[in-house]
Here is the input.
Amino acid sequence: MPDQLAEWVRWLLGSENSAGAPPAARHLWARWIFLRALGFIYFSAFYSFYFQIKGLVGPDGILPARDYLQAVEGVFHGSRFWYTPTVFWYLGTSDRALMAVCWIGLAASVLLFLNLWPRGGIFVCFVCFLSFIAVAQDFASYQSDGMLMEAGLLSLFFAPPGLRPGFGSAHGPSRASFFLLQWEWFRIYFQSGVVKLASGDQSWRHFTAMDDYYQNGPLPSWIGWYVQHLPHGFHATITGVVLATELALVWMVFLPRRFRIICFCIITPMQVSIILTGNYAFLNYLVLSLGFLLLDDQFFQRWTPARVKGWIEPEEGMAAASAAGVPAWRAQTKRILSAAEMGVAGIVLGWMFYASSAQLIEMFIPELPLPDAPIRALEPFRLDDRYGLFAVMTHERYEIEFQGSSDGGRTWLAFPFRYKPQNPAKAPGIYAPYQPRFEWNLWFASLGPWQDYRFVVWTEERLLTQDRDVLELFAGDPFDDHPPQRVRAVIYQYWFTDWKTKRETGMWWRRKLLGVYAPELEREPDGKIVVLEEPEIVPEQP
Here is the structure.
């Protein structure tokens, strides 16, 4: 029995490319595409950080990482790295250190995209991205971050070894890592479907969830404006398609290849439509790329030129021929390293499978006494996420706007945003996979009281002192080189305009001022900042 178990574990952690394996049992093309997409996604994440990180968590940013790490140090001195795993413990949190990690992450993502030392590139990207989200605090509380962390860790064991592995025919993906990436894809969909029903949101039950979805998402697009104006029947149909896809269709991943191909052909256009109608950063790009793992090499053969096929097939024979001439000591060393790698892979992948499976089971049987220590141990690494998108739909759109005054509050000028709706005459754009984390978080803040989102008040303070890094988060500074005397945050409600208004005025939005959202602040002559006015209104919780 122990021998059989060991053999089964070796099969699970070993390469799927056994001798003579047919193309339908291989996934070299799917792996190659997914890893190139992963490099692109990592690049988009670091590119977004490059233009925002100093304003978000820099020394003069909204939520300085320096202050956060000092607080963690005071509470978790002996285990500070485990609680907050980041290289900034050693590099410091200066602007230079933040930019250096951005550049390293960007370089590693380019290497991964170019298929140069993919395992090394993934490891560096994983460490750099983890370092940022570990200190970004309120600006890294998104499920998409956890999805990328999980995909990155699993890809370390999925990618081929070597500096220039090509398609890696001699080192096919391990069965365990391949399954767990498919498992992540399945859980993203299925858990999202489950929470929609479990939340009790009547809009999902009454098929009205999509009636105002395109208008009320974090960052709508101009394509979403047109889709929003389609009749209710269309939106009700889409609601049914979403529920059917997430709760039923995704189970095809566990069926024979023909069903998986059908599933891919249905879900891929769906993800593309979400990318075009809503700006959800790299989330949909990641889910889209994971979907390619539904396809096998036999599917790609009909589209593969003969010369490209030649790059793939000969590698196995070449590897076997080269292995025959390897000295005994080198072969023994290779076997030891391979066994060590398999041991590490077994621990990490087994841990990940237990944690993700336990959380899925708890969604249906919460009273089941499953050990939660392995799950809690993954929390600092953002690998414990229970996915569930759009459990409760938002049926109103509120927008927070920062305004400043230099004449005692008689005249207020708005600080213009780069991406979120503000000017009713400006068309909403398409920005994904770029993620403006500051503006994204303001959407969440608009749905609750300012006391739960104190970064809004701290942003007001930075605007009073004209902090350059924070001002870079905005599209401009209406006060040029002289700081405002007062700053406040007001809240509007927004709606898409109708066809008639759009034709006559060119306006994409109409809006209504609801009142002051957060305390109004004033900078006194001695530089002291005081609170002048408490908010008059807070939006109702959805």
